[in-house]
């Protein structure tokens, strides 16, 4: 009787774990593999919190971009907000401005509505474009899964080539505790005409809320 109880318990536990894995896989299946290092990145046209539509190609002086998928509600995104602003202040004048993109379903998080994006951008004094990925197609094409997720692309003629994918740095909670600045290292290398040495890291943050999932 005791053995039967143990087997029954293990069966229920296995079923629970299977259900969790199935749910995770169903959410992950929404995300395409995304770009790899060296891939040509397709341009996009997204609505900006500052007004109008923004694309990568329109800024002819840009040598490339620091692209960050972020949002209003996520505590990880909030922790990185000042660092994202600092990246734009440091590198926009050198040809690598920030483009921040909010990919979340606003129906799931009211904080992430376009109106709230506008309010945050204005109140915080964003110097970069804060864009809404309303269809979530851009996030899917990049393979973004979390906020914040960061990318560096380099302009080569009329094309944009993926150079870095991953996290902004190595400390999600404490800016003063950062020891590895992945985005800065990547952009500094590109500005010096050198290849990016560490071009792939893991992004840590809130899972993107996909529509219909």
What does the model show?
With 213 residues, the chain is an alpha+beta fold. The protein has 2 domains: 1-30; 33-207, 3-Layer(aba) Sandwich (Glutaredoxin), CATH 3.40.30. 33% of the residues lie in helices and 19% in strands. The chain is built from 5 helices and 9 strands; from the N terminus they run αβββαβαβαβββαβ. The protein has helices at 2-28, 75-91, 114-124, 137-142, 182-191; strands at residues 46-48, 53-54, 64-69, 98-102, 129-132, 146-147, 149-156, 159-166, 206-207. The strands form 2 sheets. Strands 2-1-5-4-3-7-8 form a 7-stranded mixed sheet, covered by helices on one side. Residues 1-31 have low confidence and may be disordered.
What spatial form do the alpha-carbon principal axes imply? globular
Helix content: 25-40%
Q: How many DSSP E strands?
A: 9
| Rg | 20 Å
CATH architectural group of the largest domain: 3-Layer(aba) Sandwich
* Mean model confidence by pLDDT: 89
Q: How is the biggest beta sheet arranged?
A: 7 strands, mixed
CATH homologous superfamily annotation of the largest domain: Glutaredoxin
Quickly name the level 1 CATH class of the largest domain: Alpha Beta
Class computed from helices, strands and strand pairing: alpha+beta
Major beta sheet, strand line-up: 2-1-5-4-3-7-8
Stretches where pLDDT falls below 50 for ≥5 residues? 1-31
Number of helices: 5
Strand content: 15-25%
Classify the fold: give the CATH topology of the largest domain: Glutaredoxin
Tally the structural domains: 2
H and E order: HEEEHEHEHEEEHE
The end-to-end span amounts to: 42 Å
């Amino acid at each position: 009787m005791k053995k039967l109880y143990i087997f029954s318990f293990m069966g229920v536990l296995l079923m629970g774990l299977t259900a969790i894995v199935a749910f995770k896989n169903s959410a992950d299946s929404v995300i395409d593999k995304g770009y790899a290092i060296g891939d040509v990145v397709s341009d996009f046209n997204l609505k900006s919190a500052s007004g109008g539509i923004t694309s990568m190609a329109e800024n002819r002086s840009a040598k490339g971009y620091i692209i960050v998928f972020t949002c209003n509600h996520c505590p990880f995104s909030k922790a990185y907000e000042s660092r994202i602003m600092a990246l734009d202040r440091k590198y926009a004048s050198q040809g690598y401005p920030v483009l921040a993109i909010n990919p979340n379903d606003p129906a799931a998080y009211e904080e992430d509505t376009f109106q709230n994006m506008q309010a945050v951008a204005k109140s915080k004094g964003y110097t970069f474009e804060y864009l809404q990925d309303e269809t979530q197609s851009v996030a899917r094409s990049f393979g973004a899964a979390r906020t914040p997720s960061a990318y560096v692309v380099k302009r080569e003629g009329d094309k944009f080539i993926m150079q870095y994918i991953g996290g902004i740095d190595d400390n999600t909670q404490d800016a003063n505790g950062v020891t590895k600045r992945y985005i800065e290292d990547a952009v500094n290398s590109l500005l010096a005409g050198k290849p990016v040495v560490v071009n792939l890291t893991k992004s840590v943050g809130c899972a993107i809320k996909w529509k219909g999932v």
